[in-house]
Structures are given as structure tokens and as C-alpha cells.
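[Automated response] Your request has been received and processed.

Submitted sequence:
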Amino acid sequence: MYSYTEFDDAFLAERNAQFRAQVERRIDGSLTEDEFKPLRLMNGLYLQLHAYMLRVAIPYGTLNSTQMHKLADIAEKWDKGYGHFTTRQNIQYNWPQLRDVPDMLDALAEVNMHAIQTSGNTIRNVTADHFAGAAADEVADPRPVAELIRQWSTDHPEFQFLPRKFKVAVSGAPHDRAVIKAHDIGLQIVERDGVLGFQVIVGGGLGRTPMIGKVLYDFVASEDLLPTLEAIVSVYNLLGRRDNKYKARIKITVHENGIDDIRARVDARYALIRPQFTGVDQQMLSRIEADFAKPTFKTAPLDAYTTAYDNDPVFRSWADTNLADHHAPGYAIVSISLKAHGATPGDATAHQMHVMADIAAQYGHDELRISHEQNVILPHVHRNDLPTLHAALKSAGLATANIGLISDIIACPGMDYCALATARSIPIAQEIATRFDELKLEHEVGPLKIKISGCINACGHHHVGHIGILGLDRAGVENYQITLGGDGTQDAAIGERAGPGFSADEIIPAIERLVRGYLDLRSEPTETFLQTYRRLGLAPFKAALYPEARANAA
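Generated structure:
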């Protein structure tokens, strides 16, 4: 992973000292809250429903064990003993005291971490495939270029006050695990005639007006990537709307002007600025790539793994759901579920973070990843170590065998924490997971992605859930709308609204009817919920959701 230079250390120390002085001025009353707000947002500090919240960047979701231990230490010392991993591969602390935040930032700096640009109308944390550097289907590791983009965008003088926040995601595999088509800019590493380059997608995004991004360029060479990105963001900075924050994202800019007009503007801007890029960025990329050299993989027998898989049904169930193929023989990618039935999706206690850090150091080549699906990944684990690893996870409550299943739910913090939320998300996720655990149906149901947002901002990605749930306020009462058929992969699609919403008391039975309806509708046990929906369309699923409407029609 990337190693900080003296420049990085000095830059971060200066930023933290600056913010410490700003916090002191806020505490002594020299700054009002209105004056302090833009300063704290530049350093990832929000004022939530009940308290401040610090959002810490985990660039492209990559951590080592030392960093994970530090995140645990911060949770223990300055928060309530846990952290919340987000859909942007960040971690949030929900209960810090304002006076402690500078100390938290200094503690993060000790392990090359920060909270810069995790908020504000700027380029946010660059995300990537959480299987990066390990996936069997990978064309190239996307993290070096994600790090290059992070360095280019951090404190970029032109892009600190964009019309709205701006999000970039990078994928290095044909199977999109980074939801690149729902980002302001999505980058797909592709190969053409033996040369690696990038397909560039612009104008994706969820929220109030969800849109799937459009291909701006089929192939951009590596040496042309940064000037292309700078041209895109420059055009958006000039053209994006500032008169209406709901229409300020680049997705609206692309929609209102058309992809051809945007491409022409980007081409013109690119022609002006390309000579300024003299190859220094490629020199930096070469140095960054050296930091991401693959670990030395061991060769070992698989006897322990095979014995456990053949004789331990609990281990076998976990292996079947939580392991993915690795490019190295004998290795697997391990997904650690932070979705124990009834738990808060994405939350991990300090103890659990320490356990995951220790396991990564001992069995995982000292690497961890955070997924946008709010789970933790050990990207490089030899299969013969898996039985021992599984036992360690089990002792910490981290061995839930549900990755990709109905209880592996993405959920935003909702009205339990967020000042913008209009409904609760966490209790709904907990009740769905608990209900299907009681029914013992989730393994029979198979792959099914439920995503829940507590307001129209869609931080829970509900638009691209196979089943999406949006919580709204209807005359002071929580109301939950359901969308169906969304997809966040390379076949990205925005879900269709099924019909009228449900109250908090009605939503769990509605989801149960929907899932039982799917089990009756699928052509065979291997046909997934999404495949069935795409084959049959909305009508039969709507009939399962609203049986009273069907009865009245009869």
C-alpha cells in the first residue's frame, strides 16, 4: 500500500495544526457555528442529529493492521467503543467531543490517515473494487491509479468549491464491484491491443434524480488520464448549476447538455491543458505502483481446509458464502460480514477491529479492505489457514455466513443519527435480517441485495438494490417505498418503484411476501431474484406485494 513521504507527513501535520487552532477558536467563541461549519466540513467533521460525527477517509478501502488497530484505539478512547464503515469505504465516529477531534486527527496522522475531503463540495474519497489486487478476474489493480487521483485531487486549488460533491470510483475487473456507473466519474481499466487504458463514464449518481452514467470515452491511455479528469471536472465546475443544489450534480449537467456537448467541451478543455502535463504524473504513478507490489504468496497443502470443509457444516456454510476466487493458487479472498443478524450494518466494535487487525497480520499478508457494502475484506488468505481464521472470527462474532444474502443489507445511519434523514434505516435492516434468520430461508433464497436509505439522498444505494427501500416522512409518519430490479454491477440499472409505500409496521411483512412470491416465481432454484425479475418484469412481484389490490381486482 502507499507509503507516505516527508511531504505527505508535513502536509498533514500543517493541516491538523490549522484545524486545531480553528477548533480552539470555536470553543472560545471567536468563531460562530456558521463561521466554523465550512472549516470543519473541510476536515470531515459533521454536526449530526445528536452530536458531531467525524468521517475518516480510507482511500480505495485499503488498510493495514496497524491502521485498523489505530481505528479501534480511537473508538475506545474518544468515542463509544465502535465505528461505522460506510458505503464510501470510510469509517465514521458518531460521538466525538469537539475538543477531542484535533487529537483524533493527530492519532490518525501517526498511521498515515486523515479526514480531508470526506465532506464538502469537492472530490471525495476515491473508491475502488474491494477485491483489488486479488480478484481472479482482474485486468489490473486499480488502486495505484486511485492513489494518483487522490493525490491530484487533494487540495486541488480549482476544485475545492465545486457546484456539489464529486465522487470517483475505479474498477480493474470486468465484473464491476465498485458501482462505477453510479458515480460522477467511473473508470474501468480495459485492455486494447495489449495496452492498458481506461473507459471513462460520467454523469452517474443516485439521490433525488438517480441516473446511470454514460460512456464519455471508450479508451483513454494511462498518460492521458489525469488531463482528461482535469478537463472533465473543469467543465463541470464552469457549467454545473449553482442556483439549485438539487440540480447541481454532474449527472444533471450531462442530462441537460447531452453527452455529445459535454464531450466536445471536455475535448476543447483537454486540448488547452494537455501540454501542462509533462509526464511528472506518470513518474509519480510508477513510484506508487511499486508500493502496490503483490505479496509473496506461499505454497502449502490444502489438507486442513479440505478436512474442515468436508466435516464441519458450519465452516462449509461460511466458506460457500464468504469466500471468493483469488488469482493465486491455493488462496482465497475472505469477506468478513459486519451484518450479524440483528446487528447494525457496518458497525464494528473496537474489540472486533483489533481481532480483524490481528488476523490480517497473521494470516492475510497484513492487508484489509473495506467494501462499499459495509463489510471487511481479507484479500489474501491461504485456504489452509481458513479453519483457524474462521474460529478466530467466530469467537469475535464475525463469522456470519451471509455475504450476498438477504441479511447482508446496506443501510445508511438514517434517523438514528443523520440530521437529514426522514425515516429510520437501521431498525428496518435489523428486523429484516432477524425475520429471515427465524424463517431459515436466506440460503434457500440465495443471492439477493437489499439496500435501505433513510431519505432521498440515497446514501444506502437503494436505487441499485435488487430490493430497494426508501424511508420517507408522510405527514409525520415513516413510510417506506419499495423499488425492484436495481443493479450496481456492470449491468447497472435503476430499480422501478413498485407502488404505494408501507408503514414501519407493514414493511417487514411486505418484504416477506415479496421474497416468498419470488420463490414461487423462479424457474429453478438457481435462478436469482434479479434474474427472475428481469425475466418476468414488475407485475407478478407487485401482485405479491399488494395482495389486497389483486383481491379487489378479482
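Summary generated for your ticket: The chain has a mean pLDDT of 97. The CA atoms of residues 52 and 256 lie 37 Å apart.
If you did not submit this request, please reply to this message.
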